[in-house]
Specification:
By secondary structure, this protein is of the alpha+beta class. The chain is built from four helices and twelve strands, in the order αααββββββββββββα.
Amino acid sequence: MIKFLRRIINNFKEYFLVVFLSIISISLFSTNEKPAIKKIRTFAFGNYAFFNKILNYPLSFLKNDFSLKELEEENAKLMLEINKLRKQGLENDNLRSMLNFKDTSKFQLLSADVVSKLVNKTQGNFIINRGSYDGVLIGMPVINNKGLIGIVVDTSKNFSVVRTLYNNNLNIAVTIERLNVDGVLSWNGNELIIKNVPSTYEVKIGDSIITSDFSTIFPPHIPVGIISKRESVPIGLLHNLSVKPFVDINSVDNLFVIKIVPSKQINNLEMNLLKK
């Protein structure tokens, strides 16, 4: 057995080396945020996604259920509307704020399929089969019928790169819905965390987390997840909160891009889109 393995290694060691070096190159390539590298990456991702789409088309055509996609889109719209109404009820029993509140159900949703997932411990990205020809712009939020998935960070003509919640370059202004307490949600490589929440707030396991009114990129009140764990920091006056997202990010195949036009000036300032 050992001789057989040794013979296999000797005969194919060049191939093993090429595969190993390719994996390392792709990993470094996908995490580099320099503008020149991002242009090359967008071009490469677009071409990869194009050929991947062609190869998967026969299977996807057989599995495609248009009525199911319509139901998923309707559920996503209802999710936005229901969460908006629940938030209004918590904030204001007499509903006076409803007159001036922007109706999130009026946002146009563009359906898309995930054609590739580029995931490591800290950098979770999807490639979707919608791009600038479909009106997709950098900074547009991405959801499904359960909640927030991420944000568009790169586009080509027919494809876009989505930075998911499982990416340490994505920081989201969120609110603990029941308490109306704001914080910043980020990925630490293992879990989603809201850091340094004052312990004076009676945060409970299971409290819902939504996007904040103060977010300049995401519409307010999009469901994000629930608090799954609460830990005190050493000084004892603050809590770090672990959040379990409503969306199972790793199993997402279909999603929606919310077609809101982001402000380029804000995007350049917002921490979500800074070069790191």
